[in-house]
Amino acid sequence: MGLFSFVKSVGNKIFGASEAQAAPAEELAKEVGKHGLDVSGLDIKVNGNKITVGGSTKDTAEAEKIILALGNTLGVSEVESNLTIVKEYPPAVMYEVKKGDTLWKIAETHYGKGKGAQYEGIFEANKPMLSHPDKIYPGQILRIPPLA
Description:
The protein is α+β, with helices and mostly antiparallel strands and 148 residues long. The chain folds into 2 domains: 2-87, Histidine-containing Protein, Chain: A; 93-144, LysM domain (Membrane-bound Lytic Murein Transglycosylase D, Chain A, Roll). Helix content is 26%, strand content 25%. It has 4 helices and 6 strands. Helix 3 (103-111) packs across helix 4 (119-125).
């Protein structure tokens, strides 16, 4: 899938992580699993603040969520995805949350004026990493799926 950039000074704080270093692979796998994602076939490697993830996923959405679960953690600046995707769908746009953003505002920016109510689709596409539509923070990376 490629290389994805993240802000290493923001994100979930995981045991063993700092701004200079990502958490150990075992702890990152626990973080992915915490979001209800299958970690059984994943191969996670950590090199400083870069993570490389390989293995197989059922579809594009699951692969993107794995990348976000890994990247939105303290100490991670890059996630290189070597994931094999069983069922491909059009990829989502990855968006970095800016100060003052809301999901409504992001939906209007990406889908067009008057389409702010589509924020629910963005929220659903980022579950379970997002627990509430109002709980986003600057520097966080979100999936913006294409409109159906």
